[in-house]
């Protein structure tokens, strides 16, 4: 048979791009500020263009401000938050070294997985899902295992728990000569985080949470001590792409080619960080606390329970207990269908038990809080749950007043 006559390859008919216009109040991504979207539509330049090199310096300065650090090694990693996470762990943990990780949420488990892939031995400090780490337990685990690296999750997106008293953890780790890696994916730009003051060696984050920026260029900062360890490794990290000793050549003084940076994502991150600086980082922390506080008041006001007690409630990610007899997936779907509003269900140990409602960055606004409580109350009441939607809205109004 003549293979030419077997049929021409025809181009697929694909309609024009028209995604729905959602309000994003899930665990991320969050709504993007119009200024950030505009920044992404500006012309591309080369990733070694003098104008882009200047812009790289600005992004680094803005990241230092947002992390509250003076670390020279502060960069956006090309990739999503998990790339920044893998860059942190894959460079810091050498084969045969020990990393202490928490068991109190989904992302502690991801830390463990990445440490194992880096050739590390993983040991655990235990706490139930939905609770923070107890500094005494961390101290005991450090004494028992003598790890080279200790990782903890500052804001656990799977449970809605904020780790309190971070300096107690970092002090204990440093007493045992362990470097500290903090997952700040859902805290950077949304809740109090002070990298230098709290003596955190390495922190990584995602841009799509409290910074309200599309995913693609992810914040990472390393202390001089941490970078010294990275640069003195005997064996190169297993990832060439995320090798910080090579990335240093691009983001450091040389500006030598390593890979093509995601230029548009860097534009977006710069604009998102400019918005942080204009608002003021401490004012931004207060805004998240006030608006998430109103969201929490509405949740409790309608008769629901928060997953995390007030002492370690995470304003940027509100974990709400699913009431008896209700399917969380159906409620999330109803809210999406009827209100174009995204919220999410639980992960891992808490799958089916909680709703995860973000209150992050540009999405943390009075209008969105009112919409979320209205939609959730309506969907739950329709599903026959024992809730009082009107009382929920009343509580939101009172809190916002």
From TrEMBL:
Domain Aminotransferase class V: 46-299
Signal peptide: none
Family the UniProt entry places it in: Belongs to the class-V pyridoxal-phosphate-dependent aminotransferase family.
GO biological process: glycine biosynthetic process, by transamination of glyoxylate
Positions of region (Disordered): 1-35
Xref: PANTHER family: ALANINE--GLYOXYLATE AMINOTRANSFERASE (PTHR21152:SF40), AMINOTRANSFERASE CLASS V (PTHR21152)
Annotated organism of origin: Halovivax ruber (strain DSM 18193 / JCM 13892 / XH-70)
Coiled coil start-end: none
Protein's name according to its UniProt entry: Serine-pyruvate aminotransferase/archaeal aspartate aminotransferase
A molecular function GO annotation: alanine-glyoxylate transaminase activity
Cofactor: pyridoxal 5'-phosphate
Keywords: Aminotransferase, Pyridoxal phosphate, Pyruvate, Transferase
């Amino acid at each position: 048979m003549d293979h030419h006559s077997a049929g021409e390859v025809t181009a697929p008919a694909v309609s024009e791009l028209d995604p729905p216009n959602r309000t994003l109040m899930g665990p991320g991504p969050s709504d993007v500020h119009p200024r950030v979207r505009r920044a992404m539509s500006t012309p591309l330049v080369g990733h070694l263009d003098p104008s882009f090199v200047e812009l790289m310096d600005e992004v680094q300065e803005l990241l230092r401000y947002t992390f509250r650090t003076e670390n020279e090694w502060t960069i956006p990693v090309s990739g999503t938050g998990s790339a920044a996470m893998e860059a942190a762990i894959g460079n810091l943990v050498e084969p045969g070294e020990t990393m202490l990780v928490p068991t109190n949420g989904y992302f502690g488990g991801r830390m463990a997985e990445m440490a194992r892939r880096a050739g590390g031995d993983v040991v655990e400090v235990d706490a139930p899902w939905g609770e923070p780490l107890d500094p005494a337990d961390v101290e005991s685990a450090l004494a028992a295992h003598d790890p080279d690296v200790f990782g903890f999750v500052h804001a656990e997106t799977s449970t809605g728990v904020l780790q309190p008293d971070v300096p107690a953890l970092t002090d204990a780790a440093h007493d045992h000569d362990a470097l500290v890696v903090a997952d700040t994916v859902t805290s950077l730009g949304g809740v109090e985080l002070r990298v230098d003051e709290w003596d955190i060696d390495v922190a990584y984050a995602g841009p799509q949470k409290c910074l309200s920026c599309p995913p693609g260029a992810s914040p990472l900062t390393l202390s001089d001590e941490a970078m010294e360890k990275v640069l003195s490794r005997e064996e190169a990290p297993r990832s060439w792409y995320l090798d910080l000793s090579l990335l240093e050549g691009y983001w450091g003084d040389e500006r030598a080619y390593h890979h093509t940076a995601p230029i548009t994502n860097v534009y977006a991150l710069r604009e998102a960080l400019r918005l942080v600086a204009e608002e003021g980082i401490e004012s931004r922390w207060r805004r998240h606390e006030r608006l998430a506080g109103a969201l929490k008041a509405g949740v409790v006001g309608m008769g629901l329970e928060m997953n995390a007690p007030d002492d370690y409630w995470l304003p940027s990610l509100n974990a709400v207990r699913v009431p008896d007899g209700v399917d969380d997936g159906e409620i999330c779907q109803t809210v999406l269908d009827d209100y174009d509003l995204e919220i999410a269900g639980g992960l891992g140990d808490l799958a089916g038990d909680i709703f995860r409602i973000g209150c992050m960055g540009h999405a943390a606004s009075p209008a969105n809080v009112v919409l979320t409580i209205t939609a959730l109350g309506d969907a739950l009441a329709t599903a026959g749950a024992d809730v009082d939607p009107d009382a929920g809205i009343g509580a939101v109004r009172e809190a916002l007043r």
